[in-house]
p-loop containing nucleoside triphosphate hydrolase protein
Amino acid sequence: MAVAAVGEVLFSVVIAGLAVVAENPELLRQVAKLFLSPPWQDVIIPESVVRETRKSPEELRDEARRSLNLNTRDFWNIVVCGQAGVGKSTMINAFLGVEDDDPRAAKSGVGETTKARTVYQICEYLLMHDIPGAGTEREPADGYVLRHKLYAYDVVLCLTGDRLTEGEILVARQLAKFQVPVLFVRTKTDIGVKSIEKRHRGRMTLEKAKDEFRKEVNASILPQLMGAGYLTPRIFFVSAWWIQDFSILGKDNFISGDTLFRYQMDEIVFFEQIMLLAQGRRMQTEEQGYGM
Ligand SMILES: *[C@@H]1O[C@H](CO)[C@@H](O)[C@H](O)[C@H]1NC(C)=O
């Protein structure tokens, strides 16, 4: 009887795992397909930025092209911001599909990195831009979104730990005000869940530990995001380890890696949201309704 019960548990775990694997390749193939093709139109500039700056979308894109060398016409652009220590370079390396010590890898900066922006080519038409987090002397949070022209990227990823810093809250507020598409990402989730498992000395199931972790992070960050102007904020729980195994560098073998990664949380919806946001930035027209 006891043996049968254990068997049943194992069986249902395996089934759940297979279901996930079955859904993954198709979704990830869609993501890859998007970023392995050039965008079909230039990026849409949010209306509120047009209003605030009193410049036309065309002018704003030109400005980004000239001052940042940002090619919004021919590439999809994802910008990653976050403080040192939240795992920004590990995340970028995961997208690149390389280890942190690979020559092509993004360097994890100890302290402040000097460069204003570093660009990585993830695949044929996808660039990832690494910019320093807000709230330091070099990088004041005031004016951060307009200064870095975050509105000209397809998607902004704000990587964070357990809480947003004051600077990050100010940036979140600006992003909300200007309606710039952003995903708030809690990184290193495998470590977070592991530490909860440890705290409960292994007496908590993995699913419970994940739930507990979500609850704790939710409780500290969601109120901050609501205060910054997001009505129904969401945090994406993501581990770079999972992403690294799914490098979308133009290969077909999306499931080459550890698809049954124990600590998987929101990685699949994270990719899905990136895709949907990027598509949305290329699917509207600016002509109607800007009311300048
Ligand atoms: C965390 O917050 C999200 C909303 O962003 C909610 O859907 C989810 O149920 C919350 N999870 C826990 C465990 O509190």
